[in-house]
């Protein structure tokens, strides 16, 4: 009998217990779905606490408040905190919870909700975001708590699951998009810094992010914000209107947010406005090569023609090599690269509650978002017969030749002509009822929520007829299967006009959809009294379904576009059933325990995967100013649906580096012609419905010390391990490993080397074109053996009040990663992800992050200075570490009246840009730091009361 099946009797007993206490309806997935009482102490701090520290550093203060409540000095209402369904007076339990208030988002200079979460110190991992550049999801943003990847953090809205973004992150994993959450309607964001599967189910291995929307607003508020970057580009504006009304037993809230952000082009940043600033060879924009002799042919005349039209800003030059010459330009890459996307978004939110009577309330909410995003990561380029051999036999010269051309912005009507565009739409609806069960202490909630996401991508593509335009009609095949042409070189060397180019390209349109729906039933209340206090319990039943579909443009498979690989439709769905119990057990007056257990059953493809998870925590309060805590829990993650249902996919990576050929050529990465090649290597990937669920174990301990209401400090240790890690081999690391194996740096007979050599398929050394070059990379999802990480979090808060000089609030948060290990094969080596320069799972994480803020409040004025320090990460070449970097944000707010305020916000106050020349262009640490420089906004807020 399997380990999971052993727990079924326990689950049955749980249902019996629930029925005995009168639970005819029970809720679920709604940690904070209950309305937080307006008088609760943890909801909205006063204005002087704009930069509040995480609640991890405030728990001991809550302990003191609880003691006072016992003595009858004050009365505290119980609230539901992320990580538990049992309402409690304390702000958190055995696992720390970080709280980001709506005021924090503005005061600390965060650009949006995503930015606020991403800047938290526990978010140590690297992620490809909307402004990353070459990425599968430039219209979406996500996070990586504890460096474990975006698919190991569960993101909830009001305690409920929402639909994944329909395009997988990095082409592989499913995730929730944080880019379209309207900040105006955010009450607070709670981050559970520990395992959450025993309460929430799958995905909550690294933690839980719960975005809690406002439930009550009195009056109408208008907010307008606009700004730009100091170095040019990126101008943006936002308008927000929110309000609410109490009409008898009916309470309503609404919010509208409209925003527009202009792009930033690489050419607008002087340090990366050319790819030859560090002495590199100009990027090829026109070449004709005799592959039999290796000689380049005819470049000078062609370069003159391109110079005549001012191609690439007049920077075209002749590149002379021993084998001849070709045309190049340092502007070929930056002219077609956006480092910040162009975005327009509209967000709507509405919510209501209707009190039927003192014990029963109906509630509901609806939200919708529309986003239009454009980005550009490379211009159009053409290579002769690319879809087949990549070269042709020139009947006129009697030689095998390859012709290559990049089209300049001046030829196509401007770089933005080649923008990709994403039109996304998202909707979420929730309806339910909550109330008290009779005259007992028990409360219940029953809710239904459904959400859907649609992303329509429009991509400019060269038409397949472009081969005929440049090469003429095909005249047959050689005995070796090479296509024969007799092209006119003059046509190839003649620049196009925008009108001519318009007839040579079209736009493919693909559509991706995802959806989820959940029915949740839960209840919580007192079971019976123990000597040390009341035993509290909560129970949950859940049923949910989710699915996705990816529909490529049918014209792709009909051969309408140049060099397009076959694209398959992919779709899938699965059902989820779950039941959970949670107990709050007072052992003695100073010692409290929490216990939680949950059983999840996923059904897909005619089979079931079941998991039982549990969590246990202890809280010890020897005095009212000190809290010691610890936890141990198990967690799991069901395999990503994209991994399970993806059909065989052929494509190419945005860019790749052939480390082996660079090594053979004896060239450093920064100057290697095989480095950062765009488009990159071809790949073949398919799904795997035999993947096993990931299983995780987590444990940690810590303390909170609060000697006064104005001073507290916390420290917490965490340790997370994942077995059966579901992953796809990172292409960059795969190529690094393959190079190390071929050059003897690694044992070529080791499992890692044998796997890498099988996956990297190269052309024969006798090939006419690119002998020894990468032909294709074979990748697929696998269950890796293990990944584990450990570290600690520190938090502190100190508020001091002066006579005549206002109030000061100082906060500190620090995360230090102590270890991070990965093992691909059970019998293979364990690799150090933290201290090794080469990270086998992709990009390494920050080894430490520090955030310090100081808020100064005097009548009508509030200012906050936020400084964040990021630890060292490897350079692009992965040969050395970049030094730690500190960035500062400043906000200054003046309240003209009780209803009107004006705020100046400056991001990157010191105008810092982190340069990295080791890997060549674009000369900065892409993904870790943004190249925007100093950015500022003015924000005006008016409240109608």
From TrEMBL:
It is a multi-pass membrane protein. It comes from the Bacteria. It is found in: Cell outer membrane. Pfam families: Plug, TonB_dep_Rec_b-barrel. Residues 1-33 form the signal peptide. GO terms for cellular component: cell outer membrane. Belongs to the TonB-dependent receptor family. This is TonB-dependent receptor. It comes from Trinickia fusca.
């Amino acid at each position: 009998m399997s380990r999971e099946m052993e727990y079924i009797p326990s689950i049955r007993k749980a249902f019996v217990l629930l029925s005995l206490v009168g639970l005819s309806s029970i809720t679920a997935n709604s940690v904070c779905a209950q309305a937080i009482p307006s008088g609760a102490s943890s909801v909205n701090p006063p204005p002087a606490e704009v930069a509040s520290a995480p609640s991890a550093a405030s728990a001991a203060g809550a302990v003191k408040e609880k003691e006072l409540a016992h003595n009858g000095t004050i009365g505290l209402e119980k609230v539901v905190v992320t990580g538990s369904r049992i309402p409690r007076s304390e702000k958190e339990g055995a696992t720390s919870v970080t709280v980001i208030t709506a005021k924090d988002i503005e005061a600390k200079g965060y650009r949006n909700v995503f930015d606020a979460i991403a800047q938290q110190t526990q978010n140590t991992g690297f992620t490809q975001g909307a402004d990353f550049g070459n990425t599968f999801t430039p219209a979406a943003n996500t996070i990586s708590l504890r460096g474990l990847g975006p698919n190991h953090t569960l993101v909830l809205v009001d305690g409920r699951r929402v639909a994944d973004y329909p395009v997988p992150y990095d082409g592989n994993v499913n995730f929730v998009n944080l880019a379209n959450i309207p900040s105006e309607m955010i009450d607070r964001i709670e981050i559970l810094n520990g395992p959450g599967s025993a309460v929430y189910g799958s995905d909550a291995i690294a933690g839980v992010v719960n975005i809690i929307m406002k439930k009550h607003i009195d009056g109408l508020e208008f907010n307008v914000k606009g700004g730009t970057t100091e170095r040019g580009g990126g101008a943006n504006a936002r308008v927000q209107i929110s309000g609410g009304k109490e009409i008898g037993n009916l309470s309503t809230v609404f919010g509208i947010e409209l925003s527009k952000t202009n792009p930033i082009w690489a050419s607008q940043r002087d340090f990366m406005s050319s790819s030859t600033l560090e002495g590199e060879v100009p990027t090829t924009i026109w070449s004709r090569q005799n592959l039999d002799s290796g000689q380049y042919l005819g470049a000078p005349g062609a370069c003159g023609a391109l110079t005549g039209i001012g191609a690439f800003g007049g920077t075209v030059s002749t590149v002379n090599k021993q084998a001849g010459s070709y045309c190049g330009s340092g502007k070929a890459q930056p002219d077609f690269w956006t480092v910040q996307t162009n975005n327009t978004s509209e967000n709507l939110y509405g919510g209501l509650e209707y009190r039927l009577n003192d014990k029963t309330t109906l509630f509901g909410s609806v939200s919708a978002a529309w986003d239009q995003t454009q980005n550009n990561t490379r211009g159009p380029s053409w290579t002769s017969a690319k879809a087949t051999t990549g070269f042709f036999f020139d009947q006129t010269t009697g030689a095998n030749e390859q012709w290559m051309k990049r089209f300049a912005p001046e030829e196509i009507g401007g770089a933005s002509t080649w923008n990709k565009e994403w039109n996304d739409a998202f909707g979420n609806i929730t309806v339910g009822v909550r109330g008290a069960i009779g005259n007992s202490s028990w409360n219940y909630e029953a809710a239904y929520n459904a959400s859907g996401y649609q992303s329509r991508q429009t991509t400019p593509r060269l038409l397949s007829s472009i081969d005929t335009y440049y090469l003429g009609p095909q005249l047959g095949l050689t005995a070796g299967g090479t296509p024969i042409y007799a092209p006119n070189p003059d046509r190839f060397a003649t620049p196009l006009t925008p009108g001519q180019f318009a007839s040579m390209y079209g736009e493919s349109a693909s559509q991706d959809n995802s959806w989820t729906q959940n029915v949740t039933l839960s209840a919580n209340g007192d079971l019976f009294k123990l000597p040390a206090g009341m035993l509290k319990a909560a129970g949950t039943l859940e049923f949910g379904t989710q699915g996705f579909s990816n529909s490529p443009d049918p014209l792709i498979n009909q051969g309408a576009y140049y060099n397009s690989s076959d694209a398959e439709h992919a779709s899938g769905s699965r059902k989820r059933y779950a039941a959970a119990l949670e107990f709050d057990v007072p052992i003695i007056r100073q010692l409290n325990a929490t216990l939680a257990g949950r059983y999840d059953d996923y059904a897909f493809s005619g089979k079931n995967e079941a998991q039982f998870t549990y969590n246990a925590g202890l809280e010890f309060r020897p005095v009212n100013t000190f809290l010691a805590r610890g936890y141990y829990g198990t967690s799991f993650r069901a395999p990503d649906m994209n991994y399970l249902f993806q059909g065989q996919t052929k494509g190419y990576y945005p860019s790749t580096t052939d480390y082996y050929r660079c090594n053979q050529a004896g060239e450093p990465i920064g100057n290697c012609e095989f480095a950062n090649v765009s488009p990159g290597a071809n790949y073949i990937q398919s799904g795997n419905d035999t993947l096993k669920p990931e299983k995780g174990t987590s444990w940690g301990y810590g303390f909170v010390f609060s000697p006064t209401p104005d001073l507290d400090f916390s420290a917490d240790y965490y340790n997370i391990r994942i077995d059966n890690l579901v992953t796809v081999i990172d292409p960059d690391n795969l190529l690094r490993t393959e190079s190390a194996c071929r050059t003897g740096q690694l044992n070529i007979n080791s499992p890692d080397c044998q796997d890498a050599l099988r996956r990297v398929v190269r052309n024969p050394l006798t090939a006419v074109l690119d002998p020894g070059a990468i032909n294709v990379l074979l990748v697929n999802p696998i269950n890796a053996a293990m990944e584990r990480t450990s570290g600690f979090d520190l938090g502190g808060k100190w508020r001091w009040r002066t006579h005549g000089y206002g109030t000061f609030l100082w906060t500190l948060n620090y995360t230090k990663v102590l270890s991070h290990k990965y093992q691909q094969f059970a019998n293979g080596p364990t690799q150090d992800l933290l201290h090794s320069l080469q990270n086998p799972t992709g990009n390494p994480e920050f080894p430490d992050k520090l955030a310090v803020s100081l808020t100064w409040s005097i009548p009508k004025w509030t200012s906050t200075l936020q400084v964040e320090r990021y630890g060292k990460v490897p350079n692009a070449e992965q040969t050395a570490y970049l030094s730690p970097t500190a960035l500062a944000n400043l906000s200054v707010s003046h309240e003209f009246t009780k209803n009107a305020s004006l705020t100046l916000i400056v991001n990157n106050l010191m105008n810092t840009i982190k340069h990295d020349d080791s890997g060549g262009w674009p000369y900065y640490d892409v993904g870790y730091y943004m190249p925007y420089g100093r950015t500022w906004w003015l924000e005006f807020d008016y409240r109608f009361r």
